[in-house]
C-alpha cells in the first residue's frame, strides 16, 4: 500500500489551464505532452497534473546537450614540441589536401563530361525536330504546288473535296480577281 501516494504526497493538483500557465505553454500542448509521456491523470476528458507531473514534463522539454567538436589533426600538430612529429603531420596533411584536390578535379571533370553528353543529346534532339519540321513544310508546299497545278472545281459540292489548302487557294484567287476588277 506504500506504492500509492496519499493526497498529501501529491501536493497541489492542477487542471490543464493552470499547468499551462505554470509551464508557460498552451493548455493543448501540456495535455499532448502529458498524454504522450504518461505525465498526467485523466478524469474523463479532463487532464489533471501533479507537481511531479509538471517536473516530468519540464524534464521532457529540456534540450539535449551538444557534444564538443573533436580536435583536428591540424591543431594537434602545432601543440607538439617534437619538430619531426610536426613535419610528419604536415606531410600527412599535405597528402590529404592533395588527394582532396585531385578528387575534386575528377568530380568536376566527370560533371563536365556528363553535361557535355546531355548537351549533345539535346542538340541532336533539336536537330531532329528541325529536320522533321522542315520535311513537313516541304511536304505541305509540295501538296500546295500539286494543288496549284490542277484547276479548282468550283461546282464541286463534296465537303471532302474542299480541304483547307483548296479553300485558301479559292480565297486567294477571289482576292486576286477582285483586285484586278477594281483597277
Give your account of this protein's structure.
- The chain has 183 residues and is mainly alpha-helical.
- Helices cover 68% and strands 5% of the residues.
- A 3-stranded antiparallel beta sheet has the order 1-3-2.
- Helix 2 crosses helix 3.
- It is elongated and about 115 Å long.
- The termini are far apart.
- The mean pLDDT is 83.
Describe the structure in brief.
Helix content is 68%, strand content 5%. The protein has helices at 7-10, 16-23, 27-37, 51-61, 73-77, 83-149, 164-182; strands spanning 14-15, 41-43, 46-49.
Keywords:
183 residues; mainly alpha; Multidrug-efflux Transporter Regulator, Chain: A, Domain 2; three-stranded antiparallel β-sheet; 5% strand
In the residues, how many domains can be counted? 3
Discrete helix count: 7
Radius of gyration: 44 Å
Strand content range? under 5%
Whole-Å distance between the termini? Answer: 122 Å
Report low-confidence residues grouped into runs of 5 or more: none
Architecture blueprint of SSEs:
Blueprint: H1 7-10, E1 14-15, H2 16-23, H3 27-37, E2 41-43, E3 46-49, H4 51-61, H5 73-77, H6 83-149, H7 164-182
Antiparallel strand pairs: 1-3, 2-3
Helix pairs in contact: 2-3
